């Protein structure tokens, strides 16, 4: 039976553990075959090299994520909102949400990124884990009718 609260909690826990650099927690949140990607919506942002990733497997994902996290400042706060389940296919639960990230600049909370996150949460019977996490960061605005889906 699907535990919607546990799915939501996993996503929130991932972002918290990421921001706080809880590297020892990450493996328990990810499947062995996890696939994580990130990029900007245009693929050409000035910081594309810093954010662009396409990694598969827990070890490769953790290595890239750790390097990425250590290169970013602290405090860093990723917030997931409008989390909702799009589809359930066996043990795979497709989830989508918005992501909004902030840090501190000159003593003030500063927005640094927003975007859409699509993920697959998988149940192994004992726990829910991230099997996929695909983040596309917003970097430009267009008329609604000109957007790419």
Automatic annotation (TrEMBL):
SUPFAM superfamilies recorded: NTF2-like
Xref: Pfam families: SnoaL_4
Signal peptide: none
Domain annotation SnoaL-like: ranges: 2-132
Source taxon at top rank: Bacteria
Oxidoreductase in keyword set: yes
Gene3D superfamilies: 3.10.450.50
Membrane-spanning residues: none
Record key words, sorted: Dioxygenase, Oxidoreductase
GO MF annotation list: dioxygenase activity
Protein name: 3-phenylpropionate/cinnamic acid dioxygenase small subunit
Organism per entry: Streptomyces iranensis
